[in-house]
Amino acid sequence: MEMIKLTPFIADYIWGGSRLIDEYGIETDKSPAAEAWVLSCHKAGPAVVTEGEYKGKTLQEIYENDKSICGTNGQKFEFFPILIKLIDAKNNLSIQVHPDDEYAMRVEGEYGKTEAWYILDCDDDAELILGFNRDVTVEEFKEAAQSEKMLDIVNKVKVKKGDLFFIEAGTMHAICKGIMLAEVQQNSNTTYRIYDYGRLGADGKPRPLHVDKAADVTKLCPPEIPDAASRKIEKFQFAERTELTSCDLFKMFNLKVDGKFDGVADETSFVSLLCLEGNAKVICGEKTLDFKKGESIFIPANAGDFSVDGKAEILETRV
């Protein structure tokens, strides 16, 4: 199978803004444009092939026809393994948590959700919520979720461009206003909303909370914050590739190219390329694709050598 360019699904959650449209070139009639699911096989929002032999097909349809596109590392997964998003948080997201695989499969019928956030841009005073600022009890957790008391026990973390946060299933979290990020996550849409600032949804009613389920799965303690100083960096003649995070679910790299970079999609994994800045051409086999900010290219496993030619910053993801 040849490499393909994907059109994302757009989610219009109430907390989103317009930066995906204005700065990343995402085309949509939805407003706000909160999330662009740039690599997605999820039934709630599949990505669609933009051009070529598979134009108009969803990535899920292609995967169902040939699961080898994920590579040997993908064989351990029951479903397509990951989902990648661009997220524009104009306002605060709800405080929430995701279950692990065992709980999610038993209760929801899909994977749990471990995820990682790569901060692309943010306001000077931007922050995230990750876990608690101290150990809490289940009773205290449930009581706090009913009022603004929740904001007294959450752990707030200042963020800056280039930060990476690995968020294991069970970690309470929230993206707060003024943050643009790329998210790599398990292929799941199961979210338990804990606290939502008393907001009303598009229907004029409070959005539902899932406090009892959240209490079943939330780690009631402070989080572990990753150390950016430990990142591995590979230097090439015209490129620099930084490992952002690596786990048994996915691997994320920041790839900066100013000239030509040669890579390979071997038998172990597909390669997802998401352009964060700049312009380039991606060449694989006999196919060449123009590649600009906001665009997503999927190179199937075993496609072989590929190259990126231009000046661009890219999020590279493998399983």
Task: State the main characteristics.
6 helices, mainly beta, 20 strands, 11% helix, 319 residues, six-stranded antiparallel sheet, nine-stranded antiparallel sheet
The fraction of residues assigned to DSSP E strands is 35-45%
Structural class from helices and strands? Answer: mainly beta
Number of extended strands: 20
Percent of residues in helices: 10-25%
Unreliable runs, pLDDT <50, ≥5 residues?
none
Distance between the termini: 18 Å
What is the chain-wise order of helices and strands? EEHEEHEEHEEHHEEEEEHEEEEEEE
Biggest sheet character: 9 strands, antiparallel
Can you describe what's shown?
The protein has six helices and 20 strands. The protein has helices spanning 19-22, 59-65, 101-107, 138-144, 150-153, 211-217; strands at 4-7, 9-11, 35-39, 48-49, 82-89, 95-97, 115-122, 127-132, 154-158, 164-167, 173-175, 179-186, 192-195, 233-235, 239-246, 251-265, 271-284, 287-292, 296-299, 304-318. It starts with a strand and ends with a strand.
Task: Furnish the topology, listing elements before pairings.
Blueprint: E1 4-7, E2 9-11, H1 19-22, E3 35-39, E4 48-49, H2 59-65, E5 82-89, E6 95-97, H3 101-107, E7 115-122, E8 127-132, H4 138-144, H5 150-153, E9 154-158, E10 164-167, E11 173-175, E12 179-186, E13 192-195, H6 211-217, E14 233-235, E15 239-246, E16 251-265, E17 271-284, E18 287-292, E19 296-299, E20 304-318
Antiparallel strand pairs: 1-4, 1-19, 2-3, 3-5, 5-12, 6-13, 7-10, 7-12, 8-9, 8-11, 14-15, 15-16, 16-20, 17-18, 17-19, 17-20
